[in-house]
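Review box. Two proteins, two foldings.
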Amino acid sequence: MKKLTITFNSPVVLGFIFTSLAVLVLGIVTVGKSNQLLFMTYHSALTDPLTYVRFFTHVLGHSGWDHYIGNAAYILLLGPMLEEKYGSKRILQVILITAAVTGIVNYVLFWNVALCGASGVVFAFILLTSFTSFKNGEIPLTFILVAIIFIGQQVYDGLFLQDDISNLSHILGGVIGAIVGYRLNRK
């Protein structure tokens, strides 16, 4: 009988999840001070070097266990498959691009709103996943349905619900995932 071993099969995804977990625990221990300082983006002075750091690190912060678990579940479900197909470098690029775009757009458009969490990354992964069986000259029906369901829900929620969820970050993440998925699979 072959001995079972645990493998570190998806280094970027697992690193992201474990780092986010450490940031969550740090946020609980510091009663949110660490999130305010490093892991949430908001309209702060452009002369503050941490403003630029937070454009990327806000995706590691979460408002609580439920927020973290919701994002981590999707990332752990979709991320390893994407990392296997596209490679660790590409998945890290998707995470960084999504973080930068959502952080900068939030900074520019929503002066009084703080943003934290990996929901934009989740939506990038969801749309990127729908391109895994893409062939040149074809648009997968799964992509169309995923785009309508996930992006459509975010547009609806953004227009008709008043909550603390950044629907624009979800939409931007989805757009990034769709663009990356198309570009990586069109050959």
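Next protein.
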Amino acid sequence: MKVFSQPEIGMKLLDHPGWEYNGSEITKCFEFTHYMDGIDFVQKIAAEAESNNHHPDICVGWCKVEVSFSTHDANGITDLDFNMALIADQLIQP
């Protein structure tokens, strides 16, 4: 499994608007109109993470959900993280 370098991560993030790299994971904060919309999103992303066997760190706040991915087994960022970022983005598409 290829671990991306910081320049490679920067290039790949161009295809993932709103996602940021903080040195150890890619993270995005999703905002919702209602608190329960965020909770619904968490349930959806949890199901996707389970089916893909790649689980994020999730922080739930008032109408905000922060999602972070890294590949712990590889000690870095891999295609698994970018694939799950895309899935997370698609979950909020109308």
